Amino acid sequence: MAAVSSQRTLDEMQPDFTSGRVFDKVFAEGMALVERTASYLDGPGREMSRKLPREAGLTYAAWSMELTARLMQAASWLVMQRAVRDGDMSREDALSPKYRLRREAPALEASEQRGLGLPDAFLDLVENSEALYNRICRLDEAIYQSGTEAHEGPVNRQIEALKAAAQQGAFDPLKIWGGTR
After folding, report:
1. Cβ–Cβ < 8 Å for 9, 143
2. Which of 45, 77, 78, 95 meets the CB 3.0–4.6 Å disulfide criterion with 41?
3. Is CATH 3.40.190.10 what the domain over 2-147 is classified as, yes or no?
4. Domain spans of the chain?
5. What is the dihedral of CA 15, 16, 21, 26, to 10 degrees?
């Protein structure tokens, strides 16, 4: 039953999301952020990092690796969504846990680092990447809910009963609502 519920969510939500302007906007913003970040880290950021005080330099090094990893995960997720939309990847393959994106490590708190030696341009990229990563994690959860609780609870059972009754032409909402308690 869990696989059916997850598949229904994927079938219903994924095409709506990837075929709309929201996906196109998230995709374009995500890829542009990846490019901006790479340009910064390979150019002005590299030069700036050499001039940072020791503690700020260590934070910069650790955060730039984390930033790069999260952006690559976000970009991979976006490309995977487009592959499913374009038929280059099956929806069943997209259900694999290896393609899920969940926040496991705490977010990088750029606001807490402002004024402590890290360049504002770098911290702006960190904030933007964290926002993108959080957004994609929420989208992933909405599209590919791994739990079945949301699909098998009393409200969804009532909705399924209403759908079945409507298809049979025997629509009695009081009977349906009363019969599921």
Report:
1. yes
2. 45
3. no
4. 2-147, 149-181
5. -70
What CA–CA distance (Å, rounded) separates 129 from 107?
A: 10
Q: Name the token pair of 172.
A: 């009695």
Entry pTM: 0.69
Tokens 């009754």: give the residue: 165
In sequence order, the 6+-apart residues with CB closer than 8 A to the CB of 80 are 89, 94, 99
Which pLDDT does position 103 carry in this prediction? Answer: 85
The amino acid at residue 46 is R
What letters, b where the CB count within 10 A reaches 16 and e where it falls short, cover 136-164? bbebbeebbbeeeeebeeeeeebeebeee
